[in-house]
Write a structure and sequence with these properties.
alpha/beta; Rossmann fold; binds iron/sulfur cluster
């Protein structure tokens, strides 16, 4: 695996800007040519939050769940993953050893995924399991490093996405009495509250505090232990923005992603994964109005696509996922060029042990959501 925090190692894998001789338009033209030339060897996956200049080249677009399912069906030797690091890791684990998964920019990470690491999770687990004799089932949102997915597999838990968190959590409560949910506290809290678990049955474990800032008595009493992580993009949406829209345009529906805070989630008319948001808007009658609480590239794309509907962002500020935005057409071109030269760059490889246990956790998710 490439060490993302080692600058010297990282630089040797980054595309070089100096060597570039193409204008922006030429870059797009070159991608088009090379994509055709390498059509039998390369498949390009594009996450919904990617910019349009990338999405236009994607063979498959989707959210984390769709793309992880698609990755497992692919047979072409090269998969270029236009998304963030944890997604490329998941794709590597779901593809064969003969296939290579490429992330166009290695610095395309996820601020939420970075809020939990294996050392912290191990420390948390030791504390929680020493605080109670009840069985705790670990559930991780797919937005995390492979080592954390492996932790979940090693401890008989499951991975979830924002599309299937409800089903996975229901499954977990059949397996044990308590839940450790990481790294996104909001998805955990919002989904558990939808399942009828009250807020006072949930506690937040903050890894930067001694024992997570909770006592053994609190752990014993709690049903759900939420990790203190969040998405910096979705945290940008606020309840007062909903109040303002309701006052100005009462007929505009508010639809948000469950990574938004509890207050926003509760006040919104509708909430669900990116796929849910897309499908809801797609199926709404002409003339419908939506204020959407999710990443701005997707909101703008929906607005362009559905000319007969009015689609705006819930926030007046640009809620952009800056790490997704790091994947530029120029880096996509570099990835294609490196494949053509038979010297692929930025190949994401997860070691066998980590893969083995992560796949157990993924299998539990697929079993529940089939
Ligand atoms: S939108 Fe949030 S959770 Fe998704 S990749 Fe960006 S920072 Fe991570």
């Amino acid at each position: 695996m490439i060490d993302l925090y080692n600058d010297t190692e990282l630089k040797s894998h980054l595309p070089s800007i100096k060597e570039d001789k193409f204008s922006d338009d030429q870059v797009l033209e070159e991608i088009r040519k090379l994509k055709n030339e390498l059509a039998n060897e390369v498949v390009i996956l594009g996450h919904h939050y990617q910019q349009d200049d990338i999405i236009q080249f994607a063979d498959i677009t989707g959210d984390s769940l769709q793309l992880s399912r698609e990755a497992s069906k692919l047979s072409k030797p090269y998969v270029i993953f236009c998304g963030v690091h944890f997604m490329a890791e998941t794709a590597d684990m779901l593809t064969t050893d003969e296939q290579s998964v490429i992330l166009p920019d290695l610095k395309a990470g996820c601020s939420m995924a970075d809020m939990a690491n294996r050392k912290e999770i191990d420390r948390c687990w030791n504390f929680l399991t020493s605080a109670t004799s009840q069985k705790i089932v670990p559930i991780t949102y797919i937005n995390c490093a492979a080592t954390l997915k492996s932790f979940v597999g090693e401890n008989n838990g499951a991975i979830c996405t924002s599309s299937n968190a409800k089903e996975v959590i229901q499954w977990a409560f059949k397996e044990g009495q308590k839940l450790l949910f990481f790294p996104d506290q909001h998805l955990g809290r919002n989904t558990c509250s939808e399942l009828g678990i009250s807020l006072d049955e949930m506690i937040v474990y903050n890894p930067s505090m001694l024992n997570g800032g909770v006592t053994k008595e609190q752990v014993e009493k709690a049903k759900v232990i939420l990790w203190y992580g969040f998405c910096s993009v979705h945290q940008g949406f606020q309840a007062k923005q909903i109040d303002q829209i309701r006052e100005e345009e009462p007929d505009r529906k508010i639809i948000v992603h469950p990574e938004c805070s509890y207050e926003v989630f509760k006040k919104a008319d509708l909430a669900g994964s990116t796929s849910y948001i897309i499908n809801t808007i797609d199926q709404a009658p002409a003339g419908s109005k939506f204020a959407v609480g999710t990443e701005i590239n997707l909101v703008n794309r929906l607005n362009k696509k559905y000319e007969d509907k009015s689609i705006t962002s819930l926030s007046p500020y640009q809620c952009l996922c800056t790490t997704m935005y790091r994947v530029r057409p120029r880096w996509l071109l570099k990835s294609l060029q490196s494949i053509k030269e038979k010297k692929p760059i930025n190949v994401i490889k997860v070691d066998k042990e980590t893969t083995k246990y992560s796949l157990l956790a993924l299998e539990n998710m697929f079993k529940v959501t089939k």
